Amino acid sequence: MALPQRLTDRKRVAIVDAAIAEFREHGFDATSMDKIAATAAVSKRTVYNHFPSKDELFAEILQRLWAGSVAQPPVPYEADQPLRPQVMALVEQKMVLLCDATFIDLARVVFGETIHSPARAQTMVAQMNEKESGLNIWMRAAQQDKRIKPVDLLEAAHMLMAPLKTFAFWPQITMGEPLLSPARQREVIDLAVDMFLCYYSAEKPAA
Predict the structure, then answer these.
(1) Helix (H, G, I), strand (E, B), or coil: what is residue 201?
(2) pTM
(3) CATH architecture of the region 1-52
(4) From CA 110, how far away is CA 61, in angstroms rounded?
(5) Rounded to 5 degrees, what are φ and ψ at 201?
(6) How do the domains of the chain map onto residue ranges?
(7) pLDDT tens-place string over residues 136-191
(8) Distance (Å, whole) CA 114 – CA 198
(9) Hey, which of 16, 118, 134, 205 would disulfide with 74, CB 3.0 to 4.6 Å?
(10) Rounded to an integer, what distance in angstroms lies between the CA atom of residue 35 and that of residue 33?
(11) Which ranges in 27-100 belong to alpha helices (H)?
């Protein structure tokens, strides 16, 4: 009985992959379930057995994006360790995600369609907001330890990741620019960490 289940799972993955490709190339509204079925090399009935509608398919793509963004293991706060390598680990982890071609493909599809139909993403965004990110958990611990200034944690987290979004996310999503080279990744990571510590660190610089 295991083999049919694995075949069913493979078909489901193929359908979602086909939907991602079609939505990206033609847009949500212009993509038919027939075209998705043809691209996935399955019958239209099989598509509907897995996903009763295109909205269900889009929700699955959102779920993939969300799962990818929260799947990374949290960076633990260490009170007896310097801040810089810990902040560096947080930023490096995010950069790995933003330089993953699959994640960027999903993000292009999602952001392209949610701009036109924001309601499609409301449920998933609410779900994402319910789960506190590892970054926010780290920030709170560092702030409680009085090593980060008493500022709004959400704002501080946004500021830490702002250089990454500026150089490694939005140009790739909106203008199709290539993923950053390893050398450029390092430059952006160093910029983000330096800016964050310069403004938000409560520790006095070493003499």
Answers:
(1) strand
(2) 0.74
(3) Orthogonal Bundle (1.10)
(4) 7
(5) -65, 135
(6) 1-52, 58-200
(7) 889 999 999 999 999 999 899 999 999 999 999 999 988 889 999 999 999 999 99
(8) 35
(9) 134
(10) 5
(11) 33-40, 44-50, 54-70, 83-98
